Amino acid sequence: MKKTVQRRESRHAPAPGVRIEDARRKNGLRLTCPYCGFFVRVRTSEYISEALISGLVECQRATCGWRGHFTFNITETTQMCELPGADDVRLGIKLSPFLERKLAAKAAQTKTPDLYNSPTIH
Q1: Per-residue pLDDT of the chain in tens (122 residues, 90 and over written 9)
Q2: Residue 94 and residue 76 in contact, taking contact as beta carbons nearer than 8 Å
Q3: What's the half-sphere exposure (Cβ side, CA atoms, 13 Å) at 122?
Q4: In what order do the strands lie in the sheet with 67-73?
Q5: HEC string of 39-90?
Q6: What secondary structure letter does DSSP report for 103?
């Protein structure tokens, strides 16, 4: 007796019986087709700037065939880069309100003493 195997429409589609939401959680960020809900594949992409990427995506469901343009934009920094010379201002990425408060509090703690008005030690 020959066993029939149910084939997926695409290698990017979830296995039969697996909900797309569950596959998304397992695999991290996955873009989906706005019409059928299957995963989309990035066909082309280009960096407009260090924080902005634009490109073309296509649906992986063979019976759908939708294509569209996407834009991926990094909007704010929530944790500073520890590499020397890293500069979010140069990239045009704003700091999150939480990070601004954190940096202001750190600057207030590490204030340099006023050498002109401090008592002298002999």
Answers
A1: 554 444 444 455 555 555 555 555 555 678 889 999 899 999 999 999 888 999 999 999 989 999 999 999 988 888 888 777 776 666 778 888 988 888 888 888 876 655 566 565 55
A2: yes
A3: 0
A4: 40-49, 52-59, 67-73
A5: EEEEEEEEEEECCEEEEEEEECCCCCCCEEEEEEECCEECCCCCCCCCCHHH
A6: H
